[in-house]
Amino acid sequence: YLENWAKNGVLLLNAALTVRAHDAGSHSKKGWEEFTDAAINYLNEKKSGLVFILWGGHAHKKGKRIDKQKHLVLKAPHPSPLSARGGFFECRHWSQANAYLKNGVQETASASDKDAVEQVPPEEEKAGMGETANANENNAVEQ
């Protein structure tokens, strides 16, 4: 139910696009890395002013290929219940992304999607987010 984000240019991309139920990382090293690397490379080369939000160690590694002169790159721990208290809740990525996008780069998108907002800390909920390539370690789409 992240359709509103997609309509506003938000791309959620996990490191692996499939996973065995209840077995995080079970489909890593199955070829998804080539696909997600190609997607990140394409966006990095062909676009400018994107916000890449990298959550978790796998996503942080993907950030090495992103040109930080052309794009904003934000990093935080993975938002899973096991690691979220290690800095994810305080990262304020939605606010940072919107501040960057409001400086004339892109329009902002609303974080009004019920399911999406429930995953966002309350102070970030009102901030929304804009055209973003979101890197998330082990969720449905690699970021």
UniProtKB/TrEMBL annotation:
GO terms for cellular component: mitochondrion; nucleus. Keywords: DNA damage, DNA repair, Hydrolase. CDD domains: UDG-F1-like (cd10027). It comes from the Eukaryota. One of its GO terms (biological process) is base-excision repair, AP site formation via deaminated base removal. Pfam families: UDG. InterPro entries: UDG_fam1 (IPR002043), Uracil-DNA_glycosylase-like (IPR005122), Uracil-DNA_glycosylase-like_sf (IPR036895). Residues 105-143 are annotated as: Disordered. Residues 112-128 have a biased composition (Basic and acidic residues). Residues 131-143 have a biased composition (Low complexity). One of its GO terms (molecular function) is uracil DNA N-glycosylase activity. Residues 4-102 form the Uracil-DNA glycosylase-like domain. PANTHER family: URACIL-DNA GLYCOSYLASE. Belongs to the uracil-DNA glycosylase (UDG) superfamily. UNG family. This is 7915_t:CDS:1. It comes from Paraglomus occultum.
